[in-house]
Amino acid sequence: MDNVVKHLKAPVPVLFLLTLCSFTALLSTTNSAAQKQFSFTEKQRFDGWFNNLAHPQWGSIDSHMTRKTPASYSDGVYMMAGENRPSPRKLSSLFMKGSDGLSSLKNRTAILAFFGQVVSSEIVMGSESGCPIEVHPIEIEKCDEMYDHECEGGKSIPFHRAGYDRNTGQSPNTPRQQINRVTSWIDGSFIYSTSEAWINAMRSFKNGTLLSEPSNGFPVRNTMRVPLFNNPVPNILRTLSPERLFLLGDPRSNQNPALLSFGILLFKWHNVLADRVQQDHPDWSDEEVFQKARRFVIATLQNIIAYEYIPAFLGTELPEYTGYKLDVHPGISHVFQSSAFRFGHTMIPPGIYRRDGKCNYRKTAMGNPALRLCAYWWDSSDVMSDSSVEEFMLGMASQLAEREDAVLCSDVRDKLFGPNEFSRRDLGALNIMRGRDNGLADYNTIRTYFELPRVEKFEDINEELFRRHPDLAEKLEKAYGSVDNVDLYIGGMLESKDGPGELFTAIIVDQFVRIREADRFWFENDKNDMFTDEELEWVRSVTLWDVIVNSTDIEPDMIQREVFFWNEGDPCPQPGQIEPSTLEPCSYLKGFDYFEGNELAYIYVCIFLGVVPLICAGAGYGVVKLQNKRKRHLRMKQEEMKSGNKSNGITVEKMSVREWLHANHRRLVKVRFGPQEEMHTVDRKGEKLRSVNFAKCDTITVEESQVDGSKKKTSIGFD
C-alpha cells in the first residue's frame, strides 16, 4: 500500500491520512458478490443520452439550451437582440475598462478563477459557430486605442453567431434555439470527452488507465489527430500542427496554460484512482477498472464543483440535496451561458505565477515574474513541457485573482485571441454580443423572471458602486436611454460588490440545482446503487486539495487546504499582484497577410488561371472543327451511297472554286459534276447550295474576263 499513501510524510494532517486510508479500505473490503454485481451495473453514457429514462435526450450533446425567459430577438425570430443599443465595444470601453493589478476582495485565488473555466467546459459549449458561419461585425469607434490607433476608421471585430437547431428560427412560434455541444451533466466530459471513439483514442486498455507518457504521466500528444481546437496563435499569426497538442477529452483544453494544467491534473487523477482500484481488485478486467475509476472521478468532481467551488465563487451554498427528480430539466439556460457564468472573467489575471515547494517563484526566459496570458493563447504545450503541473498549481494557489467587479483585465478585454484576419478581440464585447445573439431580454425583464424587483433608476443597480462613481449613472443614461434597455451582462456585472450580484447568483444557483436534481447518476442519489455508504463518505471528503496532492508531486504542506482562498499564514505569499507593465509585451492587433511567403505560388496561379481559358477555348474550337469535318465526310459518303455511283460505274468529279456573289464579295465553294447530268455547288460544311441540271442544255460556255487590268474573272454560262 506504499504507493497509495506516497504523499504521507511527517508531519501529516490526520484528516488527510484518514481520507486516503479510508478510500483504500473501502475498496479492499469489497466482497466477491459486490465485484460480480459491478459488472452488471449500468454504465453512464459519454454522450449524455438516457440519463433521464422518460426524456432520454435531456442533457445530451447537441440538445437545446433552456429558456428561462421568452426570446427577445429584434424580429421575434432570429435577428440579434438590442438593435437600438450601442456597440458592445463601446459599452466595454465605458463600463469594463479599468486598472489591472487589483486583488480579490475575498482573497480568492487564481485557482478559483481558472477552475471556473473547467466547470464551464464541463457543462457547456454553446459559443462555437454554426455552418455556414454567420458573421456579425462589432463596430469599432474611430481612433480606438487598441484596434484603430492609426485612426483609419471603418473597422470592426468579427463576431461569429453560435450554432443552432436548423428547425428553429423560422417563425415567432419557434424562435432560434442555440444548442449545447457537450452534455449538461457533470459527468467528466471535460476529462473523457462526449464520444466513445474519442475516449478510446485516449485509453491504454491496460488496467483501466488513460494513455500517458511514461516519463511524467502527461497525456500523449495528439498524433492521431483527434479534432481538438487548434486556433491560430496570435503571436505568430498562423495555425501550428495539431500533433503538438496534448490529447485530452475537451477540445478546448489547450487554450491557455492554466486550463491545460487542470486538464492534465484531472487526467492524472483518473490514473491514480485506476491504479488503486486495480491493486484492490487484480481480477477485474480493464473495462471494469476503467468504469469504476471513472465513476469515482465523476463523483469527486461533482462534490468539488457543487460543495467547494460554488460556495467559494458565490459566497453562498447550494440548497440541501433532496433526491433525484425525474421532471426537472437539466438544460443549460441561455441566461447562464451567455451572461451570468461569465462573471468569472472579471477574476482572470493577466499572468500566471509559477513556483516550487520552497516558495521560489520562477521567472520567464525574459526575466519577467510571470507568464503573460495573452502571449500563450493556444500555445501552451511548449511551456507546459518546460514547466510542470506542480509549478502552475503552486503558483496559482498563492496568486490572488483579480478584483470581483465589472472590470476585465487587458489581456482578455483587449488581447483575447481571434481569427487570423483579426488576431485580437475584446472578451467583454463578445460577452455582450453573445447575449444579443441568444436573444436575451433586457436586464430588468430577466430580474422579474427570477422573482427579483425591477430597478427603477440606474443607481438602484448598485448603490454603493454609484456613490463611488457618481458619473456612472450619466454614462448609462447616455448609452441606453432607459433602465429597461440595459443588456443583461452589463447590468449583472455592475451589481457586483465582492462576487456575483443577486441576479447572477440566482441564475447560477438555479442552474446547478437543476443539474444536480435532474441527474440520475448524481453521487448522492442513493437510489442508483452506485456507491456503498463507505464509498459515499469518502467521495464527500475529497476536495480539490486531495486531488492535487494525490495526483502530483506536491507535498501536503506546500499548499493550503482551501485552495480557492489564500489567507494569512498560508504557504508562500505572492510577490505582488500581477500588473501587465511587469510582463512581456503582447503583440498588438494584426491582420493576416495571405500573400506573404506565397509570392511564387500566387504568380503560378495567376498564369494558370490566365492560360486555362485559352486552352479551353482552343480545345473547344478544335473539337468543333473536327466535328464539322466528320459531318462533311459523312454527308459525302451518304450521297455517294444514295446515288449508287459505284454500282453504275459513274464517277463524280469535284473541284474547289470561289463563287462571286457580287463585285466585292466572294466565297469558297465546291463544284461537283454528276453522277447525273447535273452540277452542284456545296459550301465548306458539305451542305448543298444549288443544283443545275444539264439534261436540256446543249452548250456550256466558260469565259474569262479582265477589266482595267484587274485579275481575270471566270464565268460559266449555259445554253
Write up what this structure looks like.
Heme b binds at residue 345. GO terms for molecular function: heme binding; metal ion binding; peroxidase activity. Keywords: Heme, Iron, Membrane, Metal-binding, Oxidoreductase, Peroxidase, Signal, Transmembrane, Transmembrane helix. Residues 1-29 form the signal peptide. This is Dual oxidase. The protein has helices at residues 14-28, 32-38, 88-95, 110-123, 189-192, 196-202, 257-280, 286-314, 334-338, 381-386, 389-398, 410-413, 427-437, 443-449, 463-468, 472-480, 488-494, 502-518, 533-541, 544-551, 599-643, 645-648, and strands at residues 63-64, 138-139, 156-157, 179-180, 351-352, 371-372, 416-417, 424-425, 653-662, 665-673, 678-682, 688-693, 700-705, 713-718. Residues 1-22 and 24-39 have low confidence and may be disordered. The longest helix is centred in the C-terminal third of the chain and has 45 residues, at 599-643. β13 (700-705) and β14 (713-718) form a beta hairpin. It is elongated. α3 (88-95) crosses α13 and α7 crosses α11. It has 719 residues and is α+β, with helices and mostly antiparallel strands. The protein has 22 helices and 14 strands. It folds into 2 domains: 14-38 and 51-582, Myeloperoxidase, subunit C (Orthogonal Bundle), CATH 1.10.640; 651-719. Helices cover 36% and strands 8% of the residues. The strands form 6 sheets. The protein has a 4-stranded antiparallel β-sheet with strand order 9-10-11-12, with no helix packed on it. It has a two-stranded antiparallel ribbon with strand order 1-4. It has a two-stranded antiparallel sheet with strand order 2-3.
